[in-house]
Amino acid sequence: MQFHLNGFRPGDPDIKPAAAGSGSTKDHLPDKVDVLIIGCGPAGLTLAAYLAGFPDITTRIVERKPGPMEKGQADGVSCRSMEMFTAFGIAEKVKREAYWVNETTFWNPDPGSPDKIHRTGRVQDVEEGLSEMPHVILNQARIHDRYLEVMRNAPSRLEPNYSRQFVALTTSDNEYPVSVTLQRTGPAHEGHRQTVHARYVVGCDGARSAVRGAIGRELKGDRANQAWGVMDILVVTDFPDIRLKSLIKSTDAGNIILIPREGGHLVRVYIELDALTKGQQITPKDITVDHLIAAAQRVFNPYSIDVKQVAWWSVYEVGHAITDKFDNVSAESVGSQVPCVFIAGDACHTHSAKAGQGMNVSMGDAFNLGWKLVSVLQGRSAPDLLHSYSAERQKVAQDLIDFDHEWSRIIGARASGEEEQTDTPKFQRYFIEHGRFTAGLSVKYTESTLTGTATWQLLATGFEIGTRFHSAPVICLADAKPIQLGHTVTADASWRLFAFSGSGDNGCGDNSKIAQLCRFLGEDANSPRLRYTPDGAEPDSIIDVIAIFQQPHQDLDYSAMPALLKPKKGRLRLTDYEKIYSADHRQGDIFDMRGINREQGCMVIVRPDQHIAHVLPLDGFEALAMFCNGIFKATT
Amino acid sequence: MQFHLNGFRPGDPDIKPAAAGSGSTKDHLPDKVDVLIIGCGPAGLTLAAYLAGFPDITTRIVERKPGPMEKGQADGVSCRSMEMFTAFGIAEKVKREAYWVNETTFWNPDPGSPDKIHRTGRVQDVEEGLSEMPHVILNQARIHDRYLEVMRNAPSRLEPNYSRQFVALTTSDNEYPVSVTLQRTGPAHEGHRQTVHARYVVGCDGARSAVRGAIGRELKGDRANQAWGVMDILVVTDFPDIRLKSLIKSTDAGNIILIPREGGHLVRVYIELDALTKGQQITPKDITVDHLIAAAQRVFNPYSIDVKQVAWWSVYEVGHAITDKFDNVSAESVGSQVPCVFIAGDACHTHSAKAGQGMNVSMGDAFNLGWKLVSVLQGRSAPDLLHSYSAERQKVAQDLIDFDHEWSRIIGARASGEEEQTDTPKFQRYFIEHGRFTAGLSVKYTESTLTGTATWQLLATGFEIGTRFHSAPVICLADAKPIQLGHTVTADASWRLFAFSGSGDNGCGDNSKIAQLCRFLGEDANSPRLRYTPDGAEPDSIIDVIAIFQQPHQDLDYSAMPALLKPKKGRLRLTDYEKIYSADHRQGDIFDMRGINREQGCMVIVRPDQHIAHVLPLDGFEALAMFCNGIFKATT
What is the per-residue pLDDT for B358? Predict the structure, then answer.
């Protein structure tokens, strides 16, 4: 964590200095804004938290409800979302407060006594080494709180404008092309309307999104014929796995997914209702929480479940739906028109809750869009960059829905006689096979201007182009601190160029490829860093160059390192000491862990959203320049 | 982290439910209190944060200054203090914000060119495995902020009463035996006096403590003939170890201790001034920051130090002093009188800053006293328990002063020709040898009613009686979460009984010694748990029993565990699932790491301040009962 760059400043370093003219935005919604976000769900707040770091961009987020959420429905936070949280500086607090999904157990009917369940399997929830972060469970409301804190503490001091309902929008060719009509919902200004003119509007207004309707898009999908009940309960029970995620199938009483919750006592129970509705001749809409409790008690037999408090409950039918595009430009007009209205999260894809993916994919949408909006609004990139949002995220959502379809079917299936005979029933096998998916790590952006071709992929087999940068431990040369390299990719819209050294390279001398690369980046007319970093901007603000050496850090000489890796920053031109790392020979060597070619080394280019854009040879100067030319706009 | 025990409660779980009748204490200082703390330094705030968790105890803390500190002098946080911070739930945030002292380097005159320094050594700052927590550096003011947050969020919503100066105190035989006169210092009530009657008063009012004077104690010691300057600066430099703690000796220009600070840019420089004052014929009181900067530039030769900002600076002379007792009872009256006034921190011991111990020992004083005051005020223990505070902490302070004496002498010594010839100069050797001391881990309370005899020490050689409980990783059986066992010892005034299983013991069956111990504790008339836990109190509130098994957690059956290890708690009588652990076979087996006898197992009794009180055989029921009888008071 870096601070005091522009002079010593007492107080909490997480509270950034307020930008000139910024103040609480809670009570004032201007008529003209750069970005207007509709809806304070996980997608809207992720985007707002991202944009709040850029006070030169006027961002506002409006919400129909009168204040922040207190109890949310979503609760699963995938490893990938936790990795993303490191970019916002909120991962530690979430980790501390959340339930950690360490293991998952599988229960099936006992063949000897089929009305009773027994444990048939137990697996580590997240495969070893898949991520440096745990899979956790935490009330969505608490995730919201973290984002609201990031926004409040950001230079722009951004707070939501509550009690404002989206009514309609129109687009034009003006400088602020989107006109949004909002209506006040609070008692104070009930019915009062305001028109806000925005450069960009992002609809994060949920499954019934009005923004989606306003741009003429539709959710298309199916309504699976499965009703589920869900309840958050405090229980006294003799079920031994009540603090482990458990997938439970009974013979006739239905299936249950048990998800322990934060705080050591609360559990969430998802109950398949087919058995209940069939047996009791009742429809889902007539179901009460007492039905759910009774159903749970039947499934858990021979264990008892004594419900002491119901914190929340609901009944829903599983549906899967998706829109064909996530912005306001039709497929035919992509070449001629730039989008100015986007939708994200449940507004463009809905699915069952049971794969624990909804909130995660929604946050992922916003994390993909955030840096692109910043890049275009700040003139780092041309506006057609914005087409990539829908192109990349629609495919992710479609994959999720396909996965969720299959998963819902498997979870909902009756326990069969055949299942009972095998050691690892189908749903356990499927669960293990799809670990990368549920961890949020299966997302792979395909080749585009933002994602290079795999020509040099073999130089770093563990950094697969298009997937998220898989972090590994390294040691900071200047202060000998062990850190996770992936955590250097913060929510600052910068691209990272990780230069992994080749054999024997110690950063100095004529033969050092790292030194040669630094010379190219620092001096050559074709250097993308020189070309695309505006005058007056910090040297690492557009392309942040970080070197990683193979040697133990004690064998390297900080003094002899290229100047480019010791950038001077801030008002006082102080050195940033956190650009040079070496492999951590105690915790694990990143070169081995990620299959980096030790002889040649390589460059790994990482996008601001932590996805790997490209792998190039250390001397691939021209390829680097070409690739960057497709992304950045030259400063004039 | 446990919450929702008494029902689901939205919001931040770190903000505990307010106790009935509690509100902000900032504006109201009652005339009668249980504990009055004088001074908002590290000792006072540690104590206040401890007591704030007990709303049945009326605690107030007063401070002469008008508000919280913004810049503090102290900055070193030892491993031991970080361990203590886990008890308050503040370690993660400190870890994130602080500088980590990973390595220390040693610089000496270059024999070939004695006016220049060169690096002669580099060592890991904290020996491998010494603590699970790092040694860190963070502005004292930020530590204060963390404690103030703990106080504000505690059930008693405790906030300091600022602008109140201690004037005098008298003691009597009343129920509230200490009468304290305070005078307002703020402009609003300037000069206004109030008398507060307290059961206990704790003077944490620094080296010039007025409370110390009021109880007739004196700081006695020496004034070493060494002046030091200190400055917190932002610099541009080519000194390669500017982000590493460095001990630097020059030939003639004096010695420096360089301590990098939080945020990646700030550094603290301690400069020995003998060389300066001798050479310049200047006295310490005439020294300006420009003298310090010039002196530093001479020491750092051949490297340059360009100071961009001085955040803070000071000049002081090293002194070591200590009082003979830390309370108001004379040595002769210990058998007949119970103390009601205590002093802690700098009020009873002063020393140089360079061993980085001051703040740490002060916090340690308060952590020792906090649970004792709670135990006596709540009737858990008899009042003569309070004698142990002075007895235990005076010795710690004396040891610190002895160490600091030696360390100051070694640090202050000229670099000698002989030193230059050896590979590891004396100060580097001394630094390594005394690593346990600087890490705060050398404290060992000697045998007393609170600290047992070493009869069964061989059952757990790594848990030395009297030293702090050295944490190690374990896995929680119920939820498979990997945790640090030591972090179960929170700031709640409870004693812990860690029962480590013997060979083959799985917690059930007639032969299980763990089960036998649980039966004794749960059913036997001599059980200290039965005897000393008041009616209506939570079963684990006085003696918290935690079992640790040798087997991998997958091989244990939660259902079959003794009921005592699954206590029912709170309004809803929910199960506390965090009492049963197993060795962590991936991160390190606690039985191996701490030398626990695998055949027999053992009990390790841990005090509320995380120090080991006793090691006993698992079937040492009588010895356990006897030991507890010396500590607790039977409930009537």
Answer: 80
Alpha-carbon span A589 to A568, nearest angstrom: 29
Question: Does residue B557 sit at the A interface (CB-CB below 8 Å)?
Answer: yes
pLDDT category of residue A415 using cuts at 50, 70 and 90: low
What's the pLDDT score for residue A14? 94
Bigger pLDDT: A564 vs B428: A564
Q: Which two tokens stand for residue A556?
A: 């390297």
Helix residue ranges, H only, B24-172: 42-52, 79-88, 91-97, 140-153
Q: Which residues are CB-neighbours of A596 under 8 A, at least 6 positions away?
A: A459, A460, A462, A463, A500, A590, A602
Is A236 touching B (CB cutoff 8 A)?
Answer: yes
Strand stretches in B403-518, DSSP E: 473-476, 482-484, 495-500
Q: Which of residues 404-423 of B touch A (CB under 8 A)?
A: none
pLDDT tens digit string along B233-279? 999 999 999 999 999 999 988 899 999 999 999 999 999 887 666 66
Burial class (CB in 10 A: 0-12, 13-18, 19+), B281: exposed
Q: Is the pLDDT of residue B595 over 60?
A: yes
User: Is pLDDT of B471 > 60?
Assistant: yes
Contacts of B100 in chain A (CB under 8 A): 479, 481
* Parallel, antiparallel or unpaired: strands B473-476 and B580-583: antiparallel
| Coil/strand/helix, residue A213 | helix
Tell me how far apart the alpha carbons of residues A344 and A397 are, in angstroms, rounded to a whole number.
10
Nearest-angstrom CA–CA distance, B202 and B342: 5
In chain B, which residues have their Cβ closer than 8 Å to the Cβ of A243? 478-479, 577
Q: Do B262 and A479 touch (CB under 8 A)?
A: no
Q: In angstroms, rounded to a whole number, what is the distance separating the alpha carbons of residues B143 and B84?
A: 12
CB count in 10 Å sphere of residue A559: 12
Q: Are A326 and A342 in contact (CB under 8 A)?
A: yes
Planar angle of CA A159, A164, A168, nearest 5 degrees: 125
User: Which residue among B93, B122, B263 sits closest to A4, beta carbon to beta carbon?
Assistant: B263
Q: Determine if the peptide bond prior to A302 is cis (ω within 30°).
A: yes
- pLDDT at res. B355: 63
A370 token code pair: 């955030």
pLDDT at B319 over 80: no
| pTM, full prediction | 0.95
If you ran DSSP here, which 8-state letter would residue A225 be given? E
Cβ-Cβ contacts under 8 Å for A620 (sequence gap 6 or more): A456, A603
> Judged by CB atoms within 8 Å, which residues 101-120 of B form the interface with A?
102-103
Q: What is the 3-state secondary structure (H, E, C) of A146-198?
A: HHHHHHHHCCCCCCCECCEEEEEEEECCCCCCEEEEEEECCCCCCCCEEEEEE
The C-alpha atoms of residue A432 and residue B389 are separated, in whole angstroms, by 55
Contact B99 A479 (CB under 8 A): yes
Please give the Cα distance from B41 to B73 (Å, whole number). 11
pLDDT at site B276: 67
Closest residue by Cα to residue A368 from A288, A451, A293: A451
The radius of gyration of chain B from alpha carbons, rounded to an integer in Å, stands at: 26
- Beta-carbon contacts of B600 under 8 Å, excluding residues fewer than 6 positions away, are B459, B502, B503, B617, B618
How confident is the prediction for chain B on average, in pLDDT? 93
Its ipTM equals 0.94
pLDDT of the residue at B39: 98
Asked if B21 is an interface residue toward chain A (Cβ–Cβ < 8 A), one would say: no
The answer to whether B127 faces chain A, any CB pair under 8 Å, is: no
CA distance A18 to B256: 37
Alpha helix segments (H runs only) across B343-473: 358-377, 387-412, 417-421, 426-433, 435-438
DSSP B524-587: -TT-HHHHHSPTTS-TTSSEEEEEEESS-GGGS-GGGS-GGGS-EETTTTEE---SEEEEBTTT
